[in-house]
Design a protein that fits this description.
alpha+beta, single chain, 19% strand, three-stranded mixed β-sheet, disordered C terminus
Length: 113
């Protein structure tokens, strides 16, 4: 989260098995709100990678895990998946994936509770 705060990103949402009752949580999932132009151009990844002195923030760089599921480098290094999201979906519909994922998870949790 420190990298996001240093990049002046303050709207961050987290989820994942660590917020469940699982005895051994496996990962952290989440998203952060960023400028649509930075997401589309990839400059958000460059800025975060520069702060981190690593390339783990670039979610376009992905590798298969031990089961063959393609995951971002961040997951391989930290067991964390944080995706950028923008509130400007009509222009950049692909950037709403993470938001929609979490809204769906919230609705599923409400059904269970």
């Amino acid at each position: 989260m420190r990298h996001l705060w240093e990049a002046k990103i303050e709207e961050i949402y987290v989820d994942g098995s660590f917020v469940t009752n699982k005895p051994e949580p496996g990962d952290i999932d989440g998203y952060y709100v960023a400028d649509a132009r930075e997401i589309a151009s990839g400059s958000i990844y460059d800025r975060l990678n520069q702060i981190a002195k690593s390339d783990v923030w670039d979610i376009r760089k992905r590798e298969p895990d031990e089961e063959g599921i393609i995951k971002p480098l961040m997951w391989h290094k930290h067991r964390v998946e944080l995706y950028p999201h923008t509130d400007d979906p009509p222009q950049f519909p692909e950037s709403t994936f993470s938001h929609n994922f979490f809204v769906k998870r919230e609705l599923e949790l409400e059904k269970v509770l």
